[in-house]
Structure formats: structure tokens, C-alpha cells
Design brief:
This protein is of the alpha+beta class. The chain has seven helices and twelve strands.
Length: 242
């Protein structure tokens, strides 16, 4: 039935089959068949058989490793998702879907995440900076993002993206995690208040992204408006540092 169905779409058939050998071992065989005509016009199959047992073992090991990794991430309470750059798709783990009432697949990403209201308005520009960085091919990029959960509660997340590249060196996929940093943000706020009272300006320096962000202690209500990239070169060019 499967072969007939495939032949309806063309003259070639490709199947992978699991075989049980006499000694009880398991082998995987890749079968490629093409429907041909002989000199008399009779049809026959030309078949090739390839032993792909080791490939299947490697695929199984990889699948098991991915499941273990997924379980570890979930146990750690991390929100985790994968970003299909070329198709503007995001695939979310259970932590993400439960905490924010999102579907496991987000189409038209990242616009769909903005439309959902999960990202607080004041963090949208910062989140878009992450996406732009991934799309531009930055290997890693991170930022602190204010989010709003299913109950309308504000939660600060430290979001990290790691970009994957194809054989041509172009970005095609990214993996991301988000850890809750409410306690850290509370400490930062306390420090910012102290710094403001003493007249000290404070900045956050992202070493991997070569970016500094001015904190609210310096008079800005929106940290995303005070982001300086390409540090220290940009500071030298502006004459801020002599």
C-alpha cells in the first residue's frame, strides 16, 4: 500500500525498514527503488539497499540527549524556545506555554509575541534588539526583559540567544532561554536608588555584545533609549572617552 501510494506521486520509492536478524540483532536498511522499463516495455524495479544501522543509532542517541536536555531545562524552571529564523517561527517548551498561556508554535515571530502582550511595552525595543542581533548573525546576545505572565504579574527575565549557522555561515536557527531575575532586579533597583542619592551614574556592560545600557538612576525612564553599542569604539568615536 505504501509503495503504491508513493508510485502515484512518481516513479521512485524510498523507505527505511527495521530488520530483525537471526541472532536477534536489529539492523536498519535504506531501500531506494526506481520503476524502469526494459526493452520489451515491461516494468521492473531497480533497487539499492544501504545499511544505515549506525546512522539510526546516532539519531537515537541524539534524540535521547535532546530529551534529557529538555527535561533538565524544564526542571530548572527555564523558559526555552527555538527560533526558526528563515520561517519566522518559534517553538516553545512547556514552561513558556504554561507561564504565559502561549501556543507551542508561534507563527510570524517575533511580532506574534508582541501582539500577545507577553513583553511589557517598555521592553519591546530591547527584545527587538535581540532579534535583530540574531538575524544579523551575532553568535550570542542577551538582555533583561520585563514580561507579563498569565495572571498579569510582571516578571523580569534574562533572555539569552545563541545563533546556529548553516554550511555557508549564514544564521538559520537560534536557541533561547529565559531565567527569572526578579530578585536581582530588586537589588539593582536598591543600588540605583542609592547611586542616585549620591550622584553616581551607573551602567550595565554586556561583554559578549559590546553594549552598555544606562540605568534609570541617570535620569532615563527607559533603558532601551540609552543603549550604546560597539563599545568601546563608539565611545571613542563620540569623544566620550579621550
Amino acid at each position: 500500500g505504501k509503495i503504491s501510494a508513493q508510485l502515484e506521486r512518481g516513479t521512485t520509492v524510498h523507505n527505511e525498514n527495521r530488520l530483525i536478524c537471526k541472532d536477534g540483532s536489529v539492523k536498519w536498511i535504506s531501500i531506494h527503488a526506481e520503476l524502469l522499463n526494459d526493452k520489451e516495455g515491461e516494468k521492473y524495479f531497480y533497487c539499492t539497499f544501504v545499511d544505515i544501522t549506525e546512522q539510526k543509532k546516532a539519531e537515537l542517541a541524539l534524540s535521547q540527549t535532546q530529551k534529557k536536555l529538555s527535561a533538565a531545562i524544564t526542571h530548572a524552571g527555564l523558559a526555552y524556545w527555538e527560533y526558526d529564523i528563515r520561517n519566522s517561527l518559534a517553538f516553545l517548551n512547556d514552561v513558556s506555554t504554561t507561564e504565559y498561556n502561549l501556543t507551542q508554535v508561534l507563527y510570524n515571530y517575533p511580532q506574534s509575541i508582541y501582539d500577545s502582550g507577553v513583553i511589557a511595552p517598555e521592553s519591546v525595543a530591547q527584545y527587538q534588539r535581540l532579534i535583530d542581533g540574531v538575524n544579523a548573525g551575532k553568535p550570542t546576545i542577551s538582555a533583561d526583559i520585563k514580561t507579563i505572565d498569565i495572571n498579569g504579574v510582571t516578571i523580569w527575565k534574562r533572555v539569552r540567544f545563541t545563533t546556529l549557522f548553516d554550511e555557508k555561515g549564514l544564521p538559520f536557527w537560534a536557541v533561547a532561554t529565559a531565567e527569572t531575575i526578579d530578585e536581582l532586579k530588586s537589588l539593582e533597583q536598591q543600588f540605583a536608588i542609592t547611586a542616585a542619592q549620591t550622584g553616581i551614574e551607573t551602567w550595565i556592560y554586556d561583554i559578549s555584545d559590546h553594549t552598555i545600557t544606562r540605568t534609570t538612576a541617570t535620569g532615563s525612564e527607559n533603558g532601551a533609549d540609552c543603549v550604546i553599542s560597539n563599545v568601546p569604539n563608539s565611545l571613542l568615536e563620540k569623544g566620550v572617552i579621550h
